[in-house]
Amino acid sequence: MIETQVENEAADARLKRMKMRSWRRGTKEMDMVLGPYADAHLAGMAPEQLDLYDQLLRENDQDLLPWVLGQANAPEALGGLIAEIGQFARTRLQR
Questions:
Q1: Rounded mean pLDDT of 25-50?
Q2: Residue 8 above 90 pLDDT?
Q3: DSSP state of 74
Q4: pTM passes above 0.85
Q5: For the chain, first and last CA: distance in Å?
Q6: How far apart are CA 46 and CA 91, in angstroms?
Q7: Quick one: 74 exposed, middle or buried, by C-beta within 10 A (0-12, 13-18, 19+)?
Q8: 88: nearest Cα among 47, 48, 53
Q9: 51, 47, 49, 56: which is closest to 22 by C-alpha?
Q10: Model confidence pLDDT, tens digit, residues 53-67
Q11: Phi/psi at 86 (nearest 5 deg)?
Q12: What are phi and psi of 75, to 5 degrees?
């Protein structure tokens, strides 16, 4: 019981950190792309997906924005996630 509680607290802290990092990127454009995406998707992600998203958060905004906009090719490992984030952002803007 205690181990599960500690694991849940660690998972909650990780999600909180990732959401905060998604909303406070350093550029307003990426805040507006990653923040809403994180709010909508992080809680439902599998551990492997969270690891990949955490890897994406370590990337530079100057690289991320062209990838999301389709102006440059994303690294292969992040390509699927970048495409999903880009589609989410485009759909959100069309509302």
A1: 95
A2: no
A3: P
A4: yes
A5: 44
A6: 23
A7: buried
A8: 53
A9: 56
A10: 999 999 999 999 999
A11: -60, -45
A12: -55, 145
CATH 3.50.50.60 fits 2-93, yes or no: no
Distance CA 29, CA 44 (A): 24
C-alpha–C-alpha distance, residues 51 and 2, integer Å: 24
Rounded CA gap, 39 and 37, in Å?
Answer: 5
54, 26 Cβ separation under 8 angstroms:
no
Q: What whole-number distance in Å separates Cα of residue 44 and Cα of residue 50?
A: 9
Domain ranges of the chain: 2-93
CA distances from 77 to 27, 49, 57, 74, 80 (A): 23, 11, 13, 8, 8
CA nearest to 56, candidates 45, 90, 13? 45
Taking the C-alpha atoms of residue 88 and residue 79, their distance in angstroms, rounded to an integer, is: 14
